């Protein structure tokens, strides 16, 4: 059995327990039996904002490692078939850096990529294969006002997220295993990372889950079809070896400060890092949502797309990609 195949069920259970406990502290109950067909009542949201809702029951303390210091210590203002088509039904999606919205495909079939598949075609197919959340059902956002990047004022009085269905963190294993990784880093540049065995297991659990999804299987197929090389070697059709490459790209530590190994690709892109008082990276809606729940980020409006003439937002729910400030 390979490095990724022998991950014990107990280790995976620990991931679920960790996420359940951490989200419960934010009032997010993963055991909620909320009816998927019903939208949240506005009154319920308001009560939650005012602190009128009952406090969630917090799991008893165990021997789990303490989370590392957050970057957001204070509020911030700113083995698959290679020659057959992929048959996809709606399933767990791999977390996307910015995308939170549309598309809820039922059944999609795509031919496998070949040597003639262009990069643009591959990116479009990755987007089409992904199973994203449904606006106004799985989540609600209030984008409020758009703004020019040069405008530093606050164009949004309210939070970005008004609602996210708790069940998505339980029903989508990619989401569950992803959330478990978010507090594994000391986000301040210059502070050397100390990676525990539990954190290594959490990395493996996440990679195992995302490689079950259509976008990542297609990504693997594309890399093989295009004879992509990594560290001088062509990428193998073996899925376990591909996971090892992903592990290297995303989780191997390097220095962003000229000395200590204080960063990784995953940390920078999805978690964010603080250097000289400024945040960089942080291209991830789940992290933004959770930090907004904690009161540690302040949504100040979204950057106006160049194609729009008005500074007034045209929609609150169907923009799949937003640039925030």
Question: Secondary-structure map with pairings?
Answer:
Layout lengths: L8 H16 L17 H8 L36 E4 L17 E4 L8 H11 L9 E3 L4 E2 L13 E4 L3 H4 L1 H7 L17 H14 L3 H12 L3 E2 L2 E2 L4 H13 L13 H7 L1 E3 L2 E3 L4 H9 L8 E2 L22
Parallel strand pairs: 4-10
Antiparallel strand pairs: 1-2, 3-5, 6-7, 8-9
Helix pairs in contact: 3-7, 5-6, 6-8
What does this molecule look like?
With 325 residues, the chain is of the alpha+beta class. The protein is 31% helix and 9% strand. It has helices at 9-24, 42-49, 119-129, 168-171, 173-179, 197-210, 214-225, 239-251, 265-271, 285-293; strands at 86-89, 107-110, 139-141, 146-147, 161-164, 229-230, 233-234, 273-275, 278-280, 302-303. Strands 1-2 form a two-stranded antiparallel ribbon. A hairpin with a 2-residue loop joins β6 and β7.
From the structure above, extract its key features.
325 residues; two-stranded antiparallel ribbon; globular
- Give the class from helix and strand content and strand pairing: alpha+beta
> In sequence order, what are the helices and strands, one letter per element?
HHEEHEEEHHHHEEHHEEHE
Rg: 20 Å
The average pLDDT score comes to: 75
Poorly predicted parts: 35-64, 69-108
Strand content: 5-15%
Total helical elements: 10
Q: Tell me the strand order in the biggest sheet.
A: 1-2
**Strand element count:** 10
N-to-C terminal Cα separation, in Å? 46 Å
Anisotropy-based shape: globular
Query: What helical percentage do the residues reach?
Result: 25-40%
The biggest beta sheet reads: 2 strands, antiparallel
């Amino acid at each position: 059995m390979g490095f990724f195949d022998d991950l014990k069920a107990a280790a995976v259970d620990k991931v679920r327990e960790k996420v359940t406990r951490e989200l419960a502290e934010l009032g997010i109950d993963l055991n909620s039996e909320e009816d998927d067909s019903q939208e949240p009542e506005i009154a319920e949201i308001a009560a939650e904002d005012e602190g009128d809702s009952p406090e969630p029951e917090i799991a008893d303390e165990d021997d789990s490692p303490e989370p590392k210091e957050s970057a957001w210590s204070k509020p911030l203002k700113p083995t698959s078939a290679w020659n057959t088509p992929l048959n996809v039904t709606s399933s767990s999606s791999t977390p996307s850096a910015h995308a939170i919205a549309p598309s809820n495909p039922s059944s999609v079939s795509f031919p496998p990529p070949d040597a003639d598949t262009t990069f643009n075609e591959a990116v479009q197919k990755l987007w089409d294969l992904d199973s994203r959340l449904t606006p106004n059902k799985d989540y609600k956002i209030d984008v409020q006002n758009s703004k020019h990047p040069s405008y530093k004022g606050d164009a949004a009085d309210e939070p970005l997220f008004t609602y996210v269905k708790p069940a998505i963190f339980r029903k989508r294993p990619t989401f569950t295993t992803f959330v478990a990784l978010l507090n594994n880093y000391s986000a301040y540049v210059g502070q050397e990372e100390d990676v525990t065995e539990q954190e290594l297991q959490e990395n493996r659990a996440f990679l195992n889950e995302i490689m079950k999804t259509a976008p990542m299987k297609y990504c693997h197929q594309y890399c093989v079809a295009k004879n992509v090389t990594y560290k001088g070697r062509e990428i193998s059709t073996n899925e376990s070896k591909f996971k090892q490459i992903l592990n290297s790209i995303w989780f191997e530590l390097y220095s962003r400060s000229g000395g200590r190994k204080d960063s990784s690709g995953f940390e920078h892109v999805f978690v964010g890092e603080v250097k000289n008082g400024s945040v960089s990276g942080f291209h991830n809606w789940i992290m933004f949502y959770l930090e907004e729940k904690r009161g540690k980020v302040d949504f100040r409006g979204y950057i106006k797309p160049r194609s729009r003439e008005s500074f007034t937002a045209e929609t609150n729910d169907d923009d799949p990609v937003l640039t925030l400030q």
